[in-house]
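Hi P.,

Sorry for the delay on this. The queue was packed all week, but I finally got your sequence through. Input first:
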Amino acid sequence: PRLIKFLKELPLITKVGVVGSGMVATALWQAVAIDYNVDCAVVALNSGWLGYRGSYKFGGGVELQLNDQLYKFIAGIDPQSYVSHLSCPTLLLSATNNEVFDCDRAYDTVSRIEENIYSSVHYSQNQINKINQDAYTNMSLFLDKFLLDDGEIYLPGDCEIKCEIVDGELDIHINGDSKGLKSVTVYLAEQVVNPALRSWRAVTAKKKGDGKYTTKYLPYNKSEMVVMFATLKYDSGFTTCTNIIAKKFNEEEIKVTYKNNIVFSSREESLASLFTPANTIDSKVGIELFSKSD
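Then the structure:
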């Protein structure tokens, strides 16, 4: 907070944004919650809920053993406990297969931010400790919007995904901000409750109306559960994601009795960068966190 205040008092500084990733971003969550001088925040690979690690949102894992020490940690350190105090626009960039921060709970963290404050979540599918190029583009546009007051950049509003079983298959519906919406992709993973072990499959959704998309999916009838989320791509290059939901079922409800599956093995390149390798995207604020490919 002292550094942010110092920067704000400099004659050439009008706005200050903060960017943090990994475990150290817990301090960033705390700083943004108590310092109203921050104009926007980008958090990568840290969605909180460390106190619940190993206890998975959609079932399975270890049973959460709450005690006085864990209560204090959740209330005083875990970011989700104080994000409701945030007063600046916030972008959360999550990796679907991160072993520390559960992507299933990322949207739960952001949903605690007040509705009148802009917030968005992006999931980099099949990534562990890195964020993909769409996430970098999101960060670039987000910082240009809120630090440079670029009125030409439009950031989309909320979106949602719903699923029901119809005629032995999953009927999936996505609703989102229709302004500049180009395409919708649904990512699905069967059976695995531990997010770090999932193999995500992409299915393109079809447009059914203004901001409304739909698709169908046939899971293996013995997988018992399909976890899913949707990404919505816009003309500006910004990509927003729905929350992650799970649809559970029994064998009799699904008509497919056999199916191939993929055993997930993530082989991320060994780079010092937070981001997966690709060509650098120009940004007005001059971000230099992105590694160029050879």
